[in-house]
Design brief:
Elements lengths: L1 E6 L2 E4 L4 E9 L4 E9 L6 E7 L4 E2 L8 E6 L4 E6 L8 E11 L2 E6 L3 E6 L1
Parallel strand pairs: 2-11
Antiparallel strand pairs: 1-3, 3-8, 4-5, 4-9, 5-6, 7-8, 9-10, 9-11
Length: 119
């Protein structure tokens, strides 16, 4: 089992920056991949960034160059650095972890943190 808690969301003006944090607990050594997702009103949940246990990262074109995912293993924390925020970035942001139990993979989700970007 893995538990995730997001923090760092809030209200910011367009062009501003925020750092989101995701604290992981439980069987953290079983985590293979961690991701940030977001869901805006009227839109499906979408992948924002992903990082693997060998530090390979993936991000969609909509955020590439503005958002950076990183991991601090000593603190068991995942981060999302968001720069040059746009109103279209307004969404609830969720932390996700894929972790192994034996030969099986399981997923864990946080509660989400609201990010609101004003014009």
């Amino acid at each position: 089992q893995v538990q995730l808690v997001e923090s760092g969301g809030g209200l910011v003006q367009a062009g501003g920056s925020l750092i989101l944090s995701c604290a992981a607990s439980g069987d953290i050594f079983s985590i293979k991949t961690m991701c940030w997702y977001r869901q805006a009103p009227g839109k499906p949940r979408e992948l924002v960034a992903r990082i693997t246990d060998d530090d390979n990262t993936i991000a969609p074109d909509s955020v590439k160059g503005r958002f950076t995912i990183s991991r601090d293993n000593a603190k068991n924390t995942l981060y999302l650095q968001m720069n040059n925020l746009k109103p279209d970035d307004t969404a609830v942001y969720y932390c996700n972890a894929d972790y192994a139990q034996g030969s099986l993979l399981y997923g864990s989700w946080g509660q989400g943190t609201q990010v609101t970007v004003s014009s």
